[in-house]
Design brief:
The protein has helices at about 5-15, 15-30, 40-45, 65-75, 120-125, 150-155, 165-170, 175-185, 190-200, 210-220, 230-235, 250-255, 265-275, 280-285, 290-305, 310, 320-325, 330-340, 345-355, 365-370, 375-390, 400-415; strands at about 35-40, 55-60, 75-80, 85-90, 95-100, 100-105, 115, 135, 145, 160, 190. By secondary structure, the protein is of the alpha+beta class. Among the domains are: about 1-155, Beta Polymerase, domain 2 (2-Layer Sandwich), CATH 3.30.460; about 295-360, no CATH class; about 365-410, no CATH class. The structure holds cytidine-5'-triphosphate.
């Protein structure tokens, strides 16, 4: 079947590294009679009229050879993984990925697949969904769409369809992917695919995945424009509570629903764990093998939720707020501003972000030494006392600060300070 001349369209849209790489790649493939195909996401997106950035190619032949040729001709940066027959070329910030066509088998559910060289049809048959299992041969001038699994009609119908009944058991990450595509593209799961997902979830297939693989899928969702809907969908499917009990209720994610995550994907991680008990959140940190940056957001969010009542207390002084929030990650604080079930706590946290955290004494350590404070820990203590006094309103101007220090020295010398 003929489709619009998609490579020409892309070349017209892009005047940088991508165009040069595409041109050189196609020439080289044609000259060496190596069949070259654009595959997966870019084909789907072009057919849907969506913008395309990352280009994935399948080569019925030596992918690293083509990559090296493009790299040496244009001066791009080439990375080759011989073991997998894959290569990438980066030029002027644009990147193309090339893989040698392959078929694959799964030694056991959830494992990484065992791959063998194959034809483009084998390569398409190993993929997750029909909408991602299309290819366009680009090594000759007649661009032909290869669509052995009905991807085009599923794109038209707005359907996410897995290629076979064992797809989700072989690779349970596809459950996360299905939810992501459904929501991103405005599609829905084809009914039989839905049944297969249900069966895979019921068999607790997610247990077979390593923490890194699950986290990678969650991370991809966090980077979607709107992570709320796919997270809610996954919770509804019952797969999140298999990561840690309690993740089937996501009140904070629900509250964030229309909030775009571009500003900071960590806000959605914090919203995800907001309702969890501390021990469950810790289980999740371990289960997903979270890096420190994630673990900190998770722990601080749960800690902050536990502090909500104290933060809402009318007698809480500003200096007390600062002490409570010292060291707590800004992502956790910003999230609670948006999702806290206590509107008073949310206001306090907003005030902390906007105002309180910027309040501090004008005098510095050297000023204090010059005024007679003893060198050493007394300086730090005096600065903290000054800060508290300023936060709580008993000190305002720099003259007030000087008076405060002089009085502290008179009253008890350095010993009294702090
Ligand atoms: N793929 C798969 N099963 C997976 C992961 C990926 O079959 N668990 C296949 C899909 O055909 C997919 C291709 O590998 O189109 C590339 O995967 P990925 O890089 O994750 O997708 P992209 O198309 O680059 O990204 P997206 O679909 O999110 O735009």
């Amino acid at each position: 079947m003929r489709i619009p001349p998609l490579i020409d369209d892309m070349e017209r849209q892009d005047s940088g590294g991508l165009t040069a790489m595409l041109h050189t790649l196609r020439m080289c493939a044609a000259n060496h009679r190596i069949p070259l195909y654009l595959v997966g996401g870019p084909v789907r997106d072009v057919l849907m009229g969506l913008p395309v950035r990352d280009l994935d190619f399948v080569v019925e032949g030596d992918a690293p050879f083509l990559a090296r040729h493009v790299g040496s001709k244009l001066g791009g940066h080439v990375v080759v993984h011989h073991a997998f027959g894959t290569a990438s070329v980066t030029l002027d910030g644009d990147r193309i990925d090339l893989v040698t066509a392959r078929g694959e088998t799964y030694p056991h559910p959830g494992s990484l697949p065992k791959v063998n060289p194959g034809r483009i049809t084998d390569d398409l048959a190993r993929r997750d969904f029909s909408i991602n299992a299309m290819a366009v041969q680009v090594s000759d001038d007649r661009e032909r769409l290869l669509d052995p699994h009905g991807g085009l009609s599923d794109v038209t119908a707005g359907v996410v369809r897995a290629l076979h009944a064992g797809s989700f058991v072989d690779d349970p990450t596809r459950i996360f992917r299905a939810a992501r595509y459904e929501q991103r593209l405005g599609f829905s799961m084809e009914p039989e695919t839905s049944v297969w997902v249900g069966q895979a979830v019921a068999s607790c297939c997610v247990q077979s995945l390593t923490g890194d693989r699950v986290r990678h899928e969650i991370e991809r969702i966090l980077h979607e424009k709107y992570p709320g809907p796919p997270l809610m969908r996954l919770a509804g499917l019952g797969i999140l509570s298999q990561l840690t009990p309690g993740l089937d209720r996501l009140p904070a994610v629900e509250r964030l629903m229309g909030w775009p995550s571009q500003a900071d994907p960590m806000i959605y991680l914090a919203a995800l764990v907001y309702p969890l008990a501390g021990s469950r959140a810790e289980d999740l940190v371990q289960r997903l093998n979270m890096p420190n940056s994630w673990a900190r957001v998770v722990r601080d969010t749960v800690r902050l939720r536990e502090l909500e009542d104290e933060l809402s207390h009318p007698a809480l002084a500003n200096s007390g707020i600062i002490r409570m929030l010292r060291g707590i990650s800004e992502d956790a604080i910003r999230t609670l501003v948006l999702v806290s079930h206590s509107s008073v706590a949310a206001l306090v946290l907003q005030e902390y972000l906007d105002k309180l955290r910027h309040i501090g004494p004008e005098l510095n350590g050297l000023d204090l030494l010059a005024m007679g404070v003893s060198p050493g820990p007394c300086v730090g203590r005096m600065l903290r006392e000054l800060s508290d006094a300023k936060l709580d309103g008993s000190v305002e101007t720099i003259d007030d600060e000087k008076r405060f220090v002089r009085e502290a020295l008179v009253q008890g010398g350095d010993r009294q300070v702090g």
